[in-house]
């Protein structure tokens, strides 16, 4: 029976798909489709899911796997899990205070919180609540002047890791958003009004707590336009950012081997293989298939991270098997919050951890620190047999 309280709803979350299903019932259509949608006809998301499903994990037997360690080394420290929280814009759309829920989770679990350029909560507040477990994600936009001001602000706030996202020179077209007239900030017309009226719980809570805003742009002389071109970023931009940023620099949104090799030679500290959750270029290759090729090209010493399409602990183990040192989870965490608030978020995190631990046991692993042997990615032939 459906329970109205968050604890009761959280008990219904046994997988990421459960969280998505419950979130779909509770969120306005416009908000759900913003979080869930992908580029174009969404074939890119389907291809990535199929590629992940095709990777096997080989069971091993008669090994003592009674004690398992889910922590992994990450830069100079240790992360409590091999997955962290991807930077996601306007998380408070999934529920009031979502940014802070994710920050508290990062602090508890000792994993990085990716703080988006377009977060709903100021970057200074999020690193404080995350107890230092926060990385700032940066978009280049316009002529770059505001971009570098944000990087300086993050540096001054105590961020030690900067994530430069490079796969959005122009905003990808996501028809599900466009059909709803989704904009940041909201423009409320008749269609949106009806949508909100049919989801009164979300609407009343949002009204009570205030409309989510892009909190990092409350500074003089800098307004962020989500649709503004980001096409002027170049390798010279990266070099300039590397020169001014004293901490670790991650470049996110890499799918090409040649780009990855050049990045490794450019002094970045990590490469993040990602298709932006298939939200930008519909025809991009499945990033899970690019991961092993990039790992082979840059060698074992270069830090390689992964995000896009991970939905379970087994998916995380598959990404590690393809050469990732660390992974990031995105929209499924927002679904958990929309489904059952902070209780739902913790519940899904525990589910993912349990799934990973069980998969480690079944494949004969006690630890992830020594790496996961790379399994071959199935090759799909483009030709049909005669």
UniProtKB/TrEMBL annotation:
Q: Does the keyword Oxidoreductase apply?
A: yes
- Which Gene Ontology molecular-function terms are recorded? (S)-mandelate dehydrogenase activity; FMN binding
Locate the FMN hydroxy acid dehydrogenase domain: which residues? 8-381
Full protein name: (S)-mandelate dehydrogenase
The alphabetical list of record keywords is: Flavoprotein, FMN, Oxidoreductase
Q: Which cofactor does it need?
A: FMN
Q: Which family does it belong to?
A: Belongs to the FMN-dependent alpha-hydroxy acid dehydrogenase family.
Q: Provide the active-site residues from the annotation.
A: 276 (proton acceptor)
The enzyme's main class, written as a single word, is oxidoreductase
Does the keyword field hold Flavoprotein?
Answer: yes
| Chain positions recorded as glyoxylate binding sites | 34, 139, 174, 276, 279
Recorded source organism is Roseovarius tolerans
């Amino acid at each position: 029976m459906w329970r109205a309280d968050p604890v009761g709803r959280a008990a219904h979350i046994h997988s990421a798909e459960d969280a998505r299903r419950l979130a779909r019932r509770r969120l306005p259509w416009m908000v759900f489709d913003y979080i869930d949608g992908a580029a174009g006809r969404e074939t890119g998301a389907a291809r990535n899911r199929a590629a992940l499903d095709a990777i096997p994990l080989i069971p091993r037997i008669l090994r003592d796997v009674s004690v398992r360690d889910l922590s992994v080394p990450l830069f100079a420290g240790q992360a409590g899990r091999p997955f962290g929280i991807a930077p996601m814009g306007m998380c408070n759309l999934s529920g009031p205070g979502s940014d802070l829920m994710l920050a508290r989770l990062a602090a508890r679990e000792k994993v990085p919180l990716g703080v988006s350029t377009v977060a709903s909560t100021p970057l200074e507040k999020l690193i404080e609540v995350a107890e230092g477990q926060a990385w700032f994600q940066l978009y280049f936009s316009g002529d770059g002047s505001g971009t570098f001001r944000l990087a300086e602000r993050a540096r001054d706030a105590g961020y030690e890791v900067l994530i430069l996202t490079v796969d959005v020179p122009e905003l990808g077209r996501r028809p599900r958003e466009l059909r709803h007239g989704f904009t940041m900030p909201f423009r409320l017309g008749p269609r949106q009004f009806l949508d909100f009226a049919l989801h009164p719980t979300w609407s009343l809570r949002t009204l009570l707590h205030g409309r989510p805003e892009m909190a990092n742009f409350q500074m003089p002389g800098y307004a962020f336009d989500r649709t503004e071109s980001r096409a002027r970023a170049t390798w010279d931009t990266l070099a300039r950012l590397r020169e001014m940023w004293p901490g670790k620099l991650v470049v996110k949104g890499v799918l090409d081997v040649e780009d990855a090799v050049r990045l490794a030679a450019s002094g970045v500290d990590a490469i993040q293989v990602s298709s932006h959750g298939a939200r930008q270029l519909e025809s991009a290759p499945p990033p899970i298939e690019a991961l092993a090729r990039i790992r082979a090209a840059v060698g074992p010493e270069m830090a390689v991270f992964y995000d896009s399409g991970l939905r379970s602990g087994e998916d995380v183990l598959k990404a590690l098997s393809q050469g990732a040192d660390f992974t990031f989870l995105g929209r499924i965490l927002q679904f958990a919050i929309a489904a059952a608030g902070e209780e739902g978020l913790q519940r899904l995190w525990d589910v993912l951890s349990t799934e990973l631990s069980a998969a480690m046991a079944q494949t004969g692993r006690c630890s992830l620190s020594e790496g996961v042997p790379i399994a071959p990615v199935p090759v799909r032939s483009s030709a049909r047999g005669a």
